[in-house]
Amino acid sequence: MLLRVGVTGGIGGGKTLVCKILEVLGYPVFYSDLVAKSITDTDPEVIEKVKGLFGNDIYPNGKLNRKKVAELVFANDTLLKELNSIIHPAVALSFEQWCLQNAKSGLVFKESAILFETGIFRELHKTILVTAPEELRIKRVVERDGVSESEVRARMAKQMPEEQKKKLADFIVDNSSNQLVLPQVLGIVQILTSIKNG
Predict the structure, then answer these.
(1) pLDDT digit string, tens, across residues 35-67
(2) How is the chain split among helix, strand and coil, in percent rounded to 5?
(3) How far is CA 50 from CA 31, 44, 59, 104, 176, in A?
(4) DSSP secondary-structure letter at 160?
């Protein structure tokens, strides 16, 4: 049996760090957000649908203008839902093919920022939520992306509240500055391995 585990967390929470640790430990990680970016630039069917939604000029020089898309969907939930309904099935199909390629490993991880928001978590066996205090997350994103604190707060407001995610997650990794992440990840992997072998 192939055990599929989701890894998620709010912006600046540190889910990428956890995914990198999992990769170092030898487990395959599917990066949904990167795959989604690739698909919107390379999949002819997806490109046509995205153009149908935003107009042909959303692809200047053959690459999707992500900044423009972000501005448009940020202010319009209906548009965001329509965009997701184009991208998510394509990413899901890509994940299925990827799982077949990595079936031998027995345990795979799917990274996604909106695992709970989209309901994708229901298609997985277990989920890991990476958390950190809000102020620390804001500080990280401001430093990482060079954006203002108010921009980060606006992005956070669009995501499901952390408390709600905690109720849905099977495992929680505390990525605050006073907690070591590696022992937590190792502990979770140990439990997942016993579930897989169970």
Answers:
(1) 999 999 999 999 999 999 999 999 998 899 998
(2) 65, 10, 25
(3) 21, 10, 9, 35, 38
(4) P
